[in-house]
């Protein structure tokens, strides 16, 4: 099993609302590659959160460890020119000209959130941290991976100082944006290769040739 840590966003697609953001993209790609995948994240107790869970389920991605926060709306990505009426007024950030400001991250995950969620998922071979976490949350996630003997993959923003999650972790720089989930697709394929039993270096070599990306540390 692969566990992806990161709160999904809700976005607009031709077919309607969908799960968006790095965590959702990685999880979908890993599931498409044949892996069993669960997402650890947080969404609102709203129509956007409902859409995220339904879309993940349609992509064969598990969501038993996604928490619902009734006090917050699910952050939305609404490209300029798309129909804003799909969202409640408080579920996205709009510019004056009707465009949108896509949020950089989903709802934040506290250490207790990650610890609680991972209790539901005791058996996994790969843990992917798909978004920047606060120090305490990162510590909980990396300790859980070490306890389970799981391979650890950490995604960091380009140009940022890499965290120190452990000597055996693979740290990968993300591009500034990934509108077509191309980068997320490669990370998902990499995680799926490790889940199938390939060593991280072998899995990295077999997937990196399809798209130009490089590890910060491995």
Would you kindly provide a written description of the structure presented here, covering whatever features stand out?
- This protein has 218 residues and is an alpha/beta fold.
- The chain contains six helices and eleven strands.
- α3 runs parallel beside α4.
- The longest helix has 14 residues, at 135-148.
- The radius of gyration is 16 Å and the shape is globular.
- 48% of the residues are buried.
Low-confidence stretches: 89-104
Shape: globular
Order of helices and strands: EEEHEHEEEHEHEEHHE
End-to-end distance: 21 Å
The overall average pLDDT, rounded, is 84
Count of helical stretches: 6
What is the rounded Rg?
16 Å
In percent, how helical is the residue content?
Answer: 25-40%
Largest sheet: 8 strands, mixed
Chart the SSEs and their pairings:
Elements: E1 2-5, E2 9-13, E3 16-20, H1 22-32, E4 37-44, H2 47-58, E5 61-62, E6 66-69, E7 76-77, H3 111-119, E8 126-129, H4 135-148, E9 151-157, E10 170-174, H5 182-195, H6 200-208, E11 215-217
Parallel strand pairs: 1-4, 1-8, 2-7, 4-5, 4-6, 8-9, 9-10
Antiparallel strand pairs: 2-3, 10-11
Helix pairs in contact: 1-5, 3-4, 5-6
Keyphrases for this structure?
globular, alpha/beta, 218 residues, 6 helices, 11 strands, single chain
Summary?
With 218 residues, the protein is α/β, with parallel strands linked by helices.
């Amino acid at each position: 099993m692969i566990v992806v840590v990161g709160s999904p966003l809700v976005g607009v697609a031709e077919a309607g609302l969908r799960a968006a953001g790095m965590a959702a993209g990685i999880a979908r790609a890993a599931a498409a590659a044949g892996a069993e995948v669960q997402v650890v994240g947080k969404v609102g107790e709203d129509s956007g959160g409902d859409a995220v869970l339904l879309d993940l389920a349609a992509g064969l991605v598990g969501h038993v460890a996604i928490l619902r926060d009734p006090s917050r709306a699910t952050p939305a990505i609404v490209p300029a020119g798309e129909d804003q009426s799909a969202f409640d007024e408080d579920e996205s950030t709009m510019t004056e000209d009707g465009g949108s400001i896509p949020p950089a991250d989903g709802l934040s995950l506290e250490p207790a959130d990650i610890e609680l969620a991972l209790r539901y998922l005791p058996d996994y071979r790969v843990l992917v941290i798909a978004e920047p976490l606060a120090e305490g949350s990162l510590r909980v996630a990396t300790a859980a991976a070490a306890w389970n003997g799981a391979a650890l993959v950490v995604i960091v923003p380009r140009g940022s100082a890499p965290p120190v999650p452990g000597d055996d972790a693979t740290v990968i720089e993300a591009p500034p944006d990934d509108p077509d989930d191309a980068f997320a697709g490669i990370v998902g394929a990499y995680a799926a290769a490790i889940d199938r039993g390939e060593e991280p270096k072998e899995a990295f070599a077999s997937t990196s040739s399809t798209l130009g990306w490089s590890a910060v540390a491995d």
